[in-house]
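Example for tutorial group B:
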C-alpha cells in the first residue's frame, strides 16, 4: 500500500457521521440546525483546537469574499470557521474519502454549503487551477507528507501572487525518537515530522517568503489544562475527538502530549507569502 493510501486508511473511521450525530443528539443539538461552534469539539483535529484555528485565521488577515484553500481539511472544522467568521469562500481537499463525505454533510447541516466545498485529492497534485486562491492553510497535515517540497510548490502554483500560506504543523525540535502511535500515524512509516528549519528552507525554495513563525507549545499546554479543568468540573463532553479517533484516542493523545511536554516536538505556526 502506498503512503497516501495508508494515510487515508489511518484516518478512516467507518461510521463517523453516525457517531457525530448520535453525540450531538445526546448534547441536545438539532442536527439540522447546527453552527460551526456546535462541532468544534470534534472537527478541530489539531493541537490547540478551535483557539489555534482562530489565531491562524487572524494572522492570515483574511477578508470577506476571499478564496481560501484548506489542504488536509479533515471533516471541515477550520474551513467552516473561516467561512462563518471571515466571510470567505473555502475549498477543502483531503485524501480520506470518509472525511470528505462527512465534511460535506456537516457543512450542509450548518447552512454553509454555498460557502464551503470539499474534494478528495492529494496536496502533491492539487486538482485546482493556477492562481485560484488568495490564501491557503495546512493544519497538522505536513506530518503525513514526506515530499514537502512538492507540496509547497503545488500550493505556490494555486495561490495568487502575494497570497498567504498558513502552516500549522507539529515539528521536531530535537533528535529524540517519537513514540507511536501518534494521532497522525500508527508508526514511523507514514510519519514525516521535520524541524522548523526544514520548513523554512523548503518554503523559500518553493517561492515563499516566511513572514511569521510562532511556537504555540505553551499556548497549547495552557488550553489543555483549561480543558482538563472543565472536564473535571462538568464531565467529558458528549462530542469530542474521541468520536473522531475512536478507542485509540487515549494512547495516541497521551503520546503526543508527553512528547510535547518534554519539548521534543512543538506545534509551530508559519505564515508565508507567495512571491
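The residue assignment follows.
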Amino acid at each position: 500500500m502506498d503512503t497516501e493510501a495508508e494515510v487515508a486508511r489511518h484516518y478512516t473511521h467507518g461510521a463517523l457521521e453516525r457517531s457525530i450525530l448520535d453525540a450531538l443528539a445526546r448534547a441536545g443539538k438539532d442536527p439540522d440546525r447546527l453552527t460551526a461552534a456546535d462541532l468544534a469539539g470534534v472537527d478541530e483535529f489539531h493541537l490547540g483546537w478551535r483557539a489555534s484555528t482562530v489565531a491562524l485565521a487572524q494572522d492570515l488577515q483574511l477578508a470577506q469574499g476571499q478564496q481560501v484553500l484548506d489542504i488536509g481539511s479533515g471533516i471541515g472544522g477550520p474551513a467552516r470557521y473561516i467561512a462563518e467568521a471571515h466571510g470567505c469562500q473555502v475549498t477543502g481537499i483531503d485524501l480520506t474519502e470518509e472525511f470528505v463525505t462527512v465534511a460535506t454533510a456537516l457543512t450542509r447541516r450548518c447552512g454553509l454549503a454555498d460557502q464551503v466545498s470539499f474534494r478528495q485529492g492529494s496536496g502533491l497534485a492539487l486538482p485546482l487551477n493556477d492562481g485560484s486562491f488568495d490564501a491557503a492553510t495546512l493544519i497538522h497535515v505536513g506530518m503525513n507528507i514526506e515530499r514537502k517540497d512538492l507540496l509547497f510548490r503545488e500550493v505556490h502554483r494555486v495561490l495568487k501572487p502575494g497570497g498567504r500560506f498558513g502552516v500549522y504543523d507539529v515539528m521536531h525540535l530535537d533528535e529524540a525518537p517519537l513514540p507511536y502511535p501518534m494521532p497522525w500515524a500508527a508508526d514511523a512509516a507514514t510519519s514525516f515530522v521535520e524541524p522548523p528549519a526544514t520548513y523554512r528552507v523548503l518554503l523559500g525554495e518553493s517561492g515563499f517568503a516566511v513572514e511569521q513563525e510562532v511556537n504555540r507549545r505553551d499556548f497549547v499546554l495552557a488550553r489543555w489544562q483549561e480543558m482538563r479543568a472543565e472536564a473535571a468540573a462538568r464531565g467529558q463532553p458528549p462530542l469530542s475527538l474521541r468520536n473522531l479517533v475512536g478507542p485509540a484516542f487515549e494512547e495516541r493523545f497521551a503520546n503526543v502530549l508527553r512528547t510535547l511536554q518534554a519539548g521534543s516536538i512543538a506545534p509551530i505556526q508559519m505564515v508565508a507569502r507567495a512571491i
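Strands lie at 67-71, 89-94, 116-120, 133-139, 159-172, 208-215, 265-274. Compare this with the pattern of hydrophobic and polar residues in the output above.
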